[in-house]
């Protein structure tokens, strides 16, 4: 079985076998180059082509469908080599002239000695240097951060044509494309096939030749495929590496690649606060699978688009999809298991009287917390922020603040802690681990910005509420930095919470009232 | 090999005259020219013919016209022009001289 190509020779349509086509193409190119330097070369070629068409047509009329290699041989025999064509007066002059013309080199991609796209091997043939040297140079440039060389490679890959015919191969090396040279090159290739592991190598070359023809036909589609393929490879690869590094080491690479999450997240660290230690590795593994498999899939689709290799990857594909589904189900199960850890709930409150009956106005402000926190850069969820404290991850909660009136003569502070857990004992333990500090000095009450849930504790929806009780008739000044706490209190003036700070308020029986 | 070279050179010189001669009475399509010449074993490879045809055409000794064919694209018919006829006659006379010369030399031996 042989593949055929349809060609048009001076208005006649022929089906021609692929190898015969290449031979004929080589021959015509040879003639083309030969006559290009002569006056009326175009006309000569037209005449020759129509004669070739006629000769082939005669054969077709004898009852055969496709042009074979033997026919082309016959035609070439009949028409002869360019060396035989020379007219007497041209024989002397054009002989030297043409040599110069023909040794012009052209840049091609050498698909037969390729590693990736054959760009380096093509360039090495063009510049007559060792391809290994060029490859090392390219790889080094990419690793040295000269990323543009990767783009240049891709552009060359798309723009530079691949060697398809023997004449082009000679052109790439800058050798004369005479019949004898072509025969020599073909013989070299045949020898190479015979000496290397014969059948497989031969199949490879036939395969490559087949692929090359497809590439011509789908040239434009190929360019698009390469473009999107490269994009996929880049996305898949960068995303995968970033996700894996982030999960394994807990870096800050994660942000830009996969989701819109803010930088500096330590995903595995976060998991550790929610899930018990035994489950941490399991859930990290599950996350690796859940995120990694789709990214790898994108990567492979990309490589398939770019390198067009054929794989029997249905099994791998379905297998990967199956594993992904299992991981999804397991992730849901792990998550659902966590619900049980939240089933019980309790609240404890402690009250402290400030013991300062003479103070008329209480200054409320934010205590200086030991951790310097840039709020924007930390991961927040459900009123918690993951902060770094002495290089350790700390889950810090945001307390809420209320101001109420009291009939007692003195200011007082009530701290209510709430936590959940699997059972009453665990709830109690979680409650005990919650740490929240405030301090009072003279007429100033300093409230910490965060409460911590304890180093060993898991996140169990801990909450802290501060209630500052103000006796009726006394005043309270809310400093500006209290904006960072969660506020909730009614006031007579109906002022929006954000505008309540930096003001002094008087407690009336109806509630807080503004006092300039 | 040497012999082949010389033969080729000799053929080429005569070929020009023969082409004109074949076209003397009626315009011919390239294949017909080839058939005529092949009979007399003047052509080894057809490729020789085309550059010569074009050169003769460019020098004004040959003209051509296109004719529709029953199958396939139109065919190019070459024909002899008036200057061509003069040129052919000159060549013919010279050819006779050559033949005579060769004949005489052969007889002297």
Task: Give a quick precis of the structure.
Chain A has 516 residues and is of the alpha/beta class. In chain A, 50% of the residues lie in helices and 19% in strands.
Would you kindly provide a written description of the structure presented here, covering whatever features stand out?
The complex is a heterodimer of chains A (516) and B (109). With 516 residues, chain A is of the alpha/beta class. Chain A contains 17 helices and 18 strands. A 6-stranded mixed sheet of chain A has the order 11-12-5-15-17-18, with no helix packed on it. Chain A has a 5-stranded mixed sheet with strand order 4-10-14-9-16. The longest helix of chain A has 31 residues, at 277-307. Chain A starts with a strand and ends with a strand. With 109 residues, chain B is α+β, with helices and mostly antiparallel strands. Helices cover 62% and strands 13% of the residues of chain B. Chain B has helices at residues 2-22, 30-39, 49-58, 82-108, and strands spanning 28-29, 62-67, 75-80. A 3-stranded antiparallel sheet of chain B has the order 1-3-2. In chain B, a hairpin with a 7-residue loop joins strand 2 (62-67) and strand 3 (75-80). In chain B, helix 1 crosses helix 4 (82-108). Chain B is globular, with a radius of gyration of 16 Å. The model of chain B has no long low-confidence stretch (mean pLDDT 84). Chain A binds chain B through residues 10-12, 31, 35, 38-40, 43-44, 47-48, 50-51, 53-54, 57, 77-82, 84-88, 90, and chain B through 8-9, 12-13, 30-31, 34, 44-48, 50-55, 57-58, 71-73, 75-76.
State the distance separating the first and last CA atoms of chain B: 27 Å
Oligomerization state of this entry? Answer: heterodimer
* Outline type of chain B: globular
Rg calculated over all Cα atoms of chain A:
40 Å
Helix and strand layout, with pairings?
The complex is a heterodimer of chains A (516) and B (109).
Chain A: E1 4-9, E2 12-17, H1 18-36, H2 41-61, E3 66-67, H3 69-79, H4 82-85, H5 88-102, H6 119-127, H7 131-143, H8 148-159, H9 166-173, H10 179-195, H11 198-217, H12 219-248, H13 254-257, H14 267-274, H15 277-307, H16 314-340, E4 344-353, E5 361-366, E6 380-381, E7 384-389, E8 392-397, E9 400-406, E10 412-421, H17 424-433, E11 438-441, E12 444-447, E13 451-452, E14 463-471, E15 475-478, E16 486-488, E17 503-508, E18 511-515
Parallel strand pairs in A: 2-3, 5-12, 5-15, 9-14, 9-16
Antiparallel strand pairs in A: 1-2, 4-10, 6-7, 7-8, 8-13, 10-14, 11-12, 15-17, 17-18
Helix pairs in contact in A: 1-2, 1-3, 2-3, 6-7, 12-15, 15-16
Chain B: H1 2-22, E1 28-29, H2 30-39, H3 49-58, E2 62-67, E3 75-80, H4 82-108
Antiparallel strand pairs in B: 1-3, 2-3
Helix pairs in contact in B: 1-4
